[in-house]
Each structure stands twice: as C-alpha cells, then as structure tokens.
Amino acid sequence: MAFPTKIKVMNPIVEMDGDEMTRIIWKSIKEKLDIKYFDLGLHNRDATNDEVTIASGEATLKYNVAIKCATITPDEGRVKEFNLKEMWKSPNGTIRNILNGTVFREPIICKNVPRLVPSWTKPICIGRHAFGDQYRATDLVVQESGKLMLVFVPDKSNEKKELEVFNFKGAGGVALSMYNTDESISAFAEASMTTAYQKKWPLYLSTKNTILKSYDGRFKDIFQEVYETQWKSKFEAEGIWYEHWLIDDMVAYALKSEGGYVWACKNYDGDVQSDFLAQGFGSLGLMTSVLMCPDGKTIEAEAAHGTVTRHYRVHKTGGETSTNSIASIFAWSRGLAHSSSPELEVFVSPHLTEWNLTTLCSPRGLSLIGGRNLIIQYSLNATNEKDRIPPFPSAKLRDLSFRQRLESLNFIYCDTILEPLVDSALFSCLFGQLPALLTLLLPLSNPLSLSGFWLEAINSCICNDNCCDSLFSNFSMLAAIVEFPFSSFASKSL
Question: Looking at the whole model, is its pTM more than 0.70?
C-alpha cells in the first residue's frame, strides 16, 4: 500500500487560532487543508469587538468540525498588558453557548508515565455541561443593608413569582443569580448517553440535589426521563447502565475506582473535576477535549490546557522551550478523525489503529511524576526543524529487511510504550496530509528512540516495498530534523 502525497477531503474544517506558546505549536502542526480560519488571538478579538468568536462558533455549526487552539481569557492584568477595549468574555464560554454542547475530556493513557492515582488503569471520560450555571450568572456586591429578592415575570400571565433570598444587615455581602434551561439539560443528557453508548461504558451523573432540590433535582429528573424513554434498552443490551450519584460520593468513588466509565458533571463540577482527573492520570498535557453537540455530528476539538504563558515568554526572548505538544496533536487528530469518514479511512489499514509509539523519555512536564526525574538525553526545541532535508539513499538498502534497516541505524530502543498516540487519523496525517506532525512528535520523548515506533509498526502490519520505502524516507527526515550527522547516518545504514 503506497501512501498518497496529499489526501483530498470533501469536508472543510473550521480552525480557531489562539495565543502564546500554543499558537506557535499550532502553526507547526497544520498543513494545507481546506480550513476556514478564524483568528481568536486576543488582539484580533479586541480588534473585532469579539465578533470573530461568534463567527467561528456559527461556522462550526455550518461545517460540523472545528479545531481550536488555546486562548487567553483576559483578567485585569491582561487588559492592561494588551491595552484592551474591555475585559472580553471567555471565547470558550461563548462558543459553548452557541454550540450548546457538552465538553468530553479523556486522558491519553501512557504506560511509561506513572499515575498519581495508581488504581486508574482505564480512562475516565468526564462530560462537562458547557452551558449556564456560574458561567452565565449575574452577581453583585451588596454594600448596604436590604432585601435580596428573586423575581420571575412570566410572558403569558400576570402571576409574578417573588422569593426572598436573604435580608442583608450591616455592611452587606455578595449575591449571585444563575440559571439553566430544560432544552440544554436534555441536550446534555443526550450527548452523555450517546458517548457512553459509543464507548460501551456505564454513565454516572453527579449533582447535589439533596441541597439544591429544585435546581439540581431538575438535572436528575431530566436525565432519568431521557434514559428511561430512549436509552435504557440499548444500555441493557450492551451490559452497561446509568446511575445518579451525589457529587461527594462520586468524587470518593472516582478516586478508588479503576476507571472505565463516563462521568457527567454540571458546568462548575466538570471544570474542577476534569483538572483533578488530568493530574491524576499524568498531566493536563495528556488530556483530549472534545465539545460534542446533541446532533452527534458537530464537534469542536481542542487541547485541554491553556496557552503556556511561561514558555511563550521564554520563546519570545529566543530561548529554547520543551512544550508538550501531545494534546495539541490529539486536538487535530480528533477533529480530522471526526471529519474523515470516508475520505481518510480508505488510506489507513485497520491494523494501524493498534500501533504503539515506543519511547525512551517523557516531556519535561511529565518527568516529575512519581517523585523522580527522568533522564532526558536529548534536548529539542518544540519548533525545531530544518528547511532542507537531504534525500535518503533508500535504493542502496533494498537488500536489507525493514528491521535490519532500522537496527543498522544504531538507535536506542526500549520497551516502554506510549499509547495510542498514533491513531488511524493521525497516521494518515503523518504520511499524507500533515507531514509537519513528524517534527512535533520529537519533543514527546528522546527523539532518537522513535526507531522503536517503526520496529513496533513493522511487527504489526506487513507492508509492500513501496510502503516500506515511504516509511523509511520519513525516518530519514527525522534524522535530519534532530541534526544527526547525515554522513554517519547514511554510512551506518549501508
């Protein structure tokens, strides 16, 4: 099977650019796809009065797939730093409200990355309701005594409802009013159950309905209704289930469980618990994040972490960085995978989804897990690549087996596995649409240990000579990128 130089795709992709170090990585990842580009960098959001954010969300609804770079949500300090017109709202919040979706975050499991929670042997997919609650609330500071009232005025009747919330005395305090809608909660339930059914995992919803009897009770009731009327028989046929748990009980269970379930959280709970899960599994840099709409066909994929401000400031001064690009790569692979059917799949063997990437070392951000430093034998800038890559004399190597070709390079090989970084969509990108991704695999580990990936790959799939030559040509590209002496590289291979 020979890989094409470029994969033609029918469906365009919405791309949302971002800020700081992730913007640098983003530029390195993308190649010439049919992309509807929206610059959500803070300068452009300010210049367009945030209209670009709204336009990007509407484009996502039209084209069904968006891939988003991390962005800055400005605070007082950022307003001064960037001389902004005003303190713009979170672009993530704006887009989530337009899409009315649920954010699903799931760890990238790595066998060679120790977990802070050793019992987590399976992924936990956390679904965050990305609408309303504290993120659309109205709050105020009360600076004098007086009554706080909650008032609802119906459109079709004069029966106004008034509730006394609190009677402030003395110096005052703070107050908050928030809301959600039946429509959004139903969409949250539908997306959560669809995801659980697709993964064949049980689903848990966590609330505090014992305290917020009406508010959280509404979440519980709608989830139960959607489950009973649309999903119960399907779940039972797959041997999975849905249950409602109190949030405190669910957190305790999550900490001692082995994983392997979908956890549906309200907006704030999902915000907090997704970071808790990310760190427990290894790092925010090892989390996928996909915003799934109720229609099942519209998604927005992004990295779960922020803009990596500290690294960006080092980068601006000309210093070298070691930014972990795994989550950004996965944002692209998830978006491309969703948009790929059937265009990309025809180029990929089913066996490729089972391939692993063999690595020697971990990125610096992961090296402190477990209370020890991993020895990084090679340091590589996250954006380091060469403009000109010399051709590899593969014709002189045809008499060697593929394994002999690789072993002759005298690269380091070990048995620690990082999986499943190379999924089918990403593999297509590596050898077709996005060759630039080759360079971004390098910061993930000791770059020279990537030979182990090829050894694992050739053991998993039998390729013809043309395919082997294509793979080996790309391996020579890796050698050039890491500044391995080419004359030595070539001579050792003969």
Answer: no
